Amino acid sequence: PKNYPPGPRCLPIVGNLFDYKTLYNKLKYHHLVWCSFAKKYGDIVGLKLGQNLIVSITKPDIIRDVLGRPEFSGRPNSFFQKVKTFGKNLGIVFVEGNQWKNQRKFSLHSLRQFGLGRKIMEEQIREECMLLIENFSSQCKKPILMDDAFGIPILNVLWIMIAGKRFDTDDKTIHKLLDLIHSSFRLMDMSGGTVNQLPFLKYIIPELGGYNKIVGALHTMINFLEGIIEDHKRNLKDEPQDLIDSFLQYMALKTDDTFTDEQLLSLCLDLFMAGSETTSNTLSFAMLYMILHPEIQRKVQKEMNDVLGSNKCPTLEDRQNLKYTQAVILEIQRMGNIAPLGIAHKTLKATQLRGYDIPKDTIILTNLYNVHMDPQYWDEPSKFKPERFLSQDGNVMVDEEHFIPFGLGKRRCIGEVLAKANLFLFFTSILYHFSLEMVDGSYPDTEPYDGITLSPKPFLVQFIPRTV
Ligand code: HEM
To answer: Span 187-215, mean pLDDT?
Structure first.
């Protein structure tokens, strides 16, 4: 397109697909590919990958601008999205227009009704923390493998709001489902994946891009959720007990035609996926950084002792007084970069950005990784330094221009309050009960897995009980 943002020269049909793949093979991470394009072509880069126009933005002030403008609030129509949602655009994360507005409003309202941001949510998190601590205690003589330690406890808090029940830590079906989501997230990417850019390829090479694996995983998830929704239908009471009940009741009123059976299933699927993978990966990163930085771990433990005394495990109320601990959690999020390219947006109409023309239906990637790792703003960005989030007088200091792990604007994460509460309570209760140590002879691999979210590769941790 004319006056499109700069980028490498385009070939017919494939566009810049080969440039992209070549760089990806070299750099191994999608966000680094976009950082590398940005170095060469500037803060706004325009590519064509197969049939899709993709513009990536790396600078914080432009990202803020874009996330604040309604014409950038669409979502790409991904191929996997369609598999997941019966060939239609359903759910919450990838829908647009009124459907998105209504579903987002309903979800937020309903999650709040069933606990989000309320005292009961904290109680449920504390319950999950206690069970996890017991579980770690029973195994603490031997090293524990950190792979999906947090998956079920984290999902449980959300699942109680959505479906009114929690899962046992050793529930095999849920382990399997979380594992499927985890491996699908490793296979997908925000740039859309090859199948997305050249859809006809899926008929030629079905294994391409893990296509079959992802489709299989989605079908397993759908079957599982169908069972849960059927149960709710059978046991529906006058007073709704959870989000699914509320949805079913609202659907029965027939006042809004975006409330359908298929929509309910897709909404649950979206919330399940968005809510489990993100927070539990961040907690795995937390464990990783703590074994790499024992001195920081000691400082967190000392702060808890100094501020709360030696026999009180922190509550959310204590958060404001545990400033160093808060700074450590912020630094874990900054370095962990769970959603390195955020979630892709799409232009709803032709528009302009800093003098460039951006056609309708262009995919927009916000490079959150770059925002958090930009050496022009962050001093020694690859070093783990919690002090960067503390002012001279020891107060927590967050510059919202350069720290946006949950995104910004109308599409901002709806689970932020829950995620922050989970991160704080799980992190502090673990460090209150244990000191974490690296296992002799098994230095962890600090390079994360790539994917739609980043996650640490599995590593071993020794949990040493603290005498508090
Ligand atoms: C540490 C944990 C989390 C991080 C870092 C995170 C990050 C993000 C980011 C970057 C976005 C995209 C914003 C954009 O489109 O520009 C997002 C969207 C979203 N998140 Fe989270 N998230 C986390 C936890 C959660 C949880 C626990 C839930 C469960 C309720 C959740 C539900 C969602 C949903 C539904 C959206 C899509 C919103 C929309 O499209 O309107 N997230 N999140």
So the answer is: 59
Hey, where are the domains in the chain?
Answer: 17-465
* Residue 316 tokens, joined: 């959310």
* Centre of ligand 1 from the C-alpha of residue 172, in Å: 26
What's the pLDDT at 240?
95
Spell out the residues 6+ positions from residue 458 whose beta carbon is closer than 8 angstroms to its own: 145, 146, 147
Higher-confidence position of 34 and 1: 34
Residue 256, Cα to own-chain centre: how many angstroms?
29
Distance (angstroms) between ligand 1 centre and the Cα of 251 equals 25
Q: Which two tokens stand for residue 35?
A: 């950082």
Q: CATH code for 17-465?
A: 1.10.630.10
Place of tokens 């991470």: 29
Beta-carbon count within 10 A of 382 CB: 9
* Protein residue closest via CA to atom 19 of ligand 1: 413
**Cα–Cα distance measured from residue 452 to residue 343, given in angstroms and rounded to the nearest whole number:** 8
**Which atom of ligand 1 lies closest to the CA of 282?**
1
The answer to whether residues 229 and 222 touch, using CB atoms and an 8 Å cutoff, is no
**The token pair that represents 57 in the structure block:** 């933005």
Task: Tell whether ligand 1 has an atom less than 6 A from the beta carbon of residue 421.
Answer: no
Interval between CA 109 and ligand 1 midpoint (Å): 16
For 353, phi and psi rounded to 5 degrees?
Answer: -140, 115
Instruction: Please say if the pLDDT value at position 86 is more than 70.
Output: no
Q: What is the pLDDT of residues 107-160, one digit of tens each?
A: 999 999 999 999 999 999 999 999 999 999 998 778 999 988 899 999 999 999
Q: Any known ligand binding at 413?
A: yes
Ligand 1 center to 270 CA (angstroms): 10
* 13: pLDDT strictly greater than 90: no
What's the mean pLDDT in 276-300? Answer: 96
CA distance 354 to 392: 36
Q: Mean pLDDT over all residues of the chain?
A: 90
What is the per-residue pLDDT for 190? 60
Sign of CA dihedral 283, 289, 290, 292: positive
The reply to whether the predicted model has a pTM over 0.80 is yes
Q: Show the DSSP H helices in 367-411 as ranges.
A: 368-373
Q: How many CA atoms lie within 13 A of 278 on its CB side?
A: 23
Question: Averaged over 74-88, what is the pLDDT?
Answer: 68
Residue nearest to ligand 1 atom 41, measured at CA: 411
In angstroms, the CA 38 to CA 22 distance is 16
State the helix-helix crossing angle for 243-253 and 151-163, rounded to 10 degrees.
30
End-to-end CA distance of the chain: 65
User: Residues with Cβ < 8 Å from 237, sequence gap 6 or more?
Assistant: 245
Residue nearest atom 3 in ligand 1 by C-alpha distance: 278
Sign of CA dihedral 29, 384, 289, 391: negative
